[in-house]
Amino acid sequence: MVKTLNIPLVGAKRRAPSSAARVSRRPGGDVWLALVAVAFTLAQLVLVRPGMGLGWDETVYVSQVSPHVPAAFFSAPRARGVPLLVAPIASWSSSTTLLRVYLALLSGLALYLALRVWRGLFPTRVLATAGGVFATLWVTLFYGPQAMPNYWVAIGALACVGCFLRARADRSDRAALWGVGLSTALMAWMRPTDAVWTALPLLVLAVAVRGWPRPRLLVALVAGLVAGAGEWVLEAYVSYGGLGQRLADASRIQGGLGWNFAVGDQMRSLSGRALCRPCTGAMPNPVVMVWWFALPLLAVLGLVIAVRARRTATTLLLLACATTAGIPYLFMIGYAAPRFLLPVYALLAIPVADALVHLVTAPSRAWRPVAVTLVALGLAGHLAVQFAVLQATVQRTTDSHRAWAATAADLHRLGVRPPCLLTGHEAVPIAFYAGCSSVATSGHNANTTETDIVRSGRREPVGVLTTPGGRPPAYARDWAPHPAGDLRVYVAPGAGGGAV
């Protein structure tokens, strides 16, 4: 197996570059990659409404650096990468539209840079197609302009594997070696555990395979993990009772990591469910799921093509990292969110694109029109499905965010204005919209006690949110109930609360 992994790579030192490599280094190659990135950015701005408001997790991340709202409770699994990413905007502006535009521009630039890493390893037409495949998935378009970590883990993974291969092929390529460290740090900065899973095949190769420049690559990978996850580890000892306790808390919040067959859950989430927990109900229409099954099949075809093109190790490494990146979200948690698999999709995009390009260029003249027609029809149908799911998801998400904003406006009319405190049903995002702090006495965000909540009610407005038919906790049953948006709020007497 070791010998198999040592198959020469395109562009290896002392080997004349292949025709594919020569084509991909032409000046026009960058133009095609840039056009894909620009189209991706514009599609985000047009199809994902910049003013649709912030989601639940986004409010947690943005609140950490925003001077306009109190910081929400930061639970054990979260990392500080996203707050630092949005800080250039969120630290001085409360405009969601401005933040979305900033993230859309940044995500487009990041896609271009990640694809550019692969020049010389694959033909430019393959890389441009790969960018198009990844960028047109509804989940990529939806989360590209959001203050969420998964897209950035995907970009880091794509760049990391490419830089790793370039550094392997040319020991004098210091830029590639730095790229390994920086892209690994980006992944760990966003989600430390995802970075470890994704980089696992690279670590194994750097340690175990004879003939690879092991010390340099291993140092770059480890340095990147330490640089990215170092703050998360230190914070574990400062605020979470140690690294082991933080990992245990993170596992508990995610339902207890272990053997959980979540493939079916991921399939149910393909219809646009941002969080499928609990993941029940019928499967989506088969038309919605076709691309999900086609992706691994085309990736395997891409591997067959890679063997013939003498870039087996390159494609194998992409598939290996995609596999390890997907393992925790397909087999170790009991729920699903489509964004979890973004790193898998990014890594599979290149072998999938290799297969698609081969299908429309390699067949004989007699079969080429058939192959081109089938691929064109398949891609057209794929785009139609992705657009339909994206539009429905954006509309549904916008409606829910507007409901939170309406509830916040009603709270202000009731006298629950900053400084204020909210707890109960959907308190975290509604508190962000209202400018209040949010607390909980149980669940994933538990950070206070009932006694502290009652005490807070004597000095500032405090509200307990429930569903219209829900019951408040015992300490709030004597508080005045009021409708607030689609919910009900029980407002503590005193400290200005309950004023209409």
Automatic annotation (TrEMBL):
Protein name stated in the entry: Integral membrane protein
UniProt-listed PANTHER family: MANNOSYLTRANSFERASE YKCB-RELATED, MEMBRANE PROTEIN
Subcellular location: Cell membrane
UniProt membrane topology term: Multi-pass membrane protein
GO biological process: lipopolysaccharide biosynthetic process
UniProt GO molecular function: pentosyltransferase activity
Main location: membrane
Top-rank taxon, per record: Bacteria
A GO term from the CC aspect: plasma membrane
InterPro entries: LipidA_mod_glycosyltrf_83
Keyword annotations: Cell membrane, Glycosyltransferase, Membrane, Transferase, Transmembrane, Transmembrane helix
Segments passing through the bilayer: 31-48, 97-114, 126-144, 150-167, 174-190, 196-212, 217-234, 290-309, 316-336, 342-362, 369-390
